[in-house]
Amino acid sequence: MKVIICGKGGSGKSTISALIAKALDTHGFNVLLIDADESNTGLHRLMGVSQPVILMDSLGGKKGFKQKLNRVSPFGSELFKQGMKIDDISEECISRSNGIRLLVIGKIHTSGEGCACPMGLLSKTVLSKLDIGDNEVVIIDTEAGIEHLGRGVDAGCDLIIGVVDPSFESFMLAKKMQEMAGKAEIEIVFVLNKVDDTVEAAMTKHFDPEKVITRIPNSNTIFMNSLEGKELKTDLPEINPICEQIEKFKKI
User: Fold this and answer.
1) Helices in the chain by DSSP H: which ranges?
2) Contact call for residues 51 and 96 (beta carbons, < 8 A)
3) Phi, psi of 139 (to 5 degrees)
4) What is the pLDDT of residues 172-221, one digit of tens each?
């Protein structure tokens, strides 16, 4: 199953992605965590691992990737064969944390290097060709906003999880995400993040209760781990409903 994590910048997508991956690992799943955010560089630190070789860089950067796109043989690499398995991904592009594998799609390295569209295309290609086994789950941490949905990155996914923080912009973005998911015929659910008694009522009134699968409390421990670039080791029971939702969809 492929699960894409979306939301406004600063809503906590990377934190939620890491916590879901860690929880699924304890549930016995083989987890591939994909960093598809070309700007944020902190996901590997939240997982407590070093950043692997970036997939786009391993293909020769944007220029090398474009050249491979133009070859008669698709991409000129067995990495991108139709029906590829998680085990087919080059080990140099993988960092491991227990049963979790981290793959980084691409990062912006220099000023003026151009748009990030090739990274979106690379994400879409990998997800569309990846064949997932019964005990495997792919979690995709995306860039801020909804540009990736416009690029069709979500087309290769089974479920969208929208992360919503207590801000009006986040509520409006969630509404747009739900609209786009509906047109794409992909199930979407929401995680309310950074919730406390003060904001919970104001947040929940914007959502269909059946679409909200859990509420993540405002945690000073998580905030300090993220602030200091440390591994997330917090065990939150509020993450379990997300795992249950994923297991439910896998059965379907």
Assistant:
1) 13-26, 43-47, 55-58, 61-69, 117-129, 147-151, 168-184, 200-204, 220-227, 240-251
2) no
3) -110, 125
4) 999 999 999 888 888 999 999 999 999 999 999 999 999 999 999 988 88
Residues 252 and 45: their CA atoms lie apart, in Å, by 34
At position 199, the amino acid (one-letter code) is V
Of 31, 62, 28, 27, the C-alpha closest to 49 is 31
CA distance linking residue 130 with residue 4, whole number of Å: 14
204: region left, alpha or beta (phi > 0 left; psi from -120 to 50 alpha): alpha
How far is Cα 152 from Cα 184, in angstroms, rounded to an integer?
A: 9
How many domains does the chain contain in total? 1
Dihedral angle, C-alpha 127, 160, 198, 239, nearest 10 ° = -70
Residue 116 tokens read as 């990030």
| Widest CA span in the chain | 58
Dihedral sign from CA coordinates of 139, 142, 145, 149: negative
pTM, entire model: 0.91
Q: Which tokens hold the place of 103?
A: 């793959």
CATH number of the domain enclosing 226: 3.40.50.300
Residue type, 95: S
Structural domain span for residue 163:
2-251
What does DSSP assign to residue 84?
A: B
Q: Can you list the alpha helix ranges (DSSP code H) found in 147-219?
A: 147-151, 168-184, 200-204
Percentages helix, strand, coil for the chain (3-state, rounded to 5) are 45, 20, 35
| Nearest alpha carbon to residue 4 among 247, 186, 210 | 186
pLDDT in tens, 117-153: 788 888 888 888 899 988 999 999 998 887 777 666 7
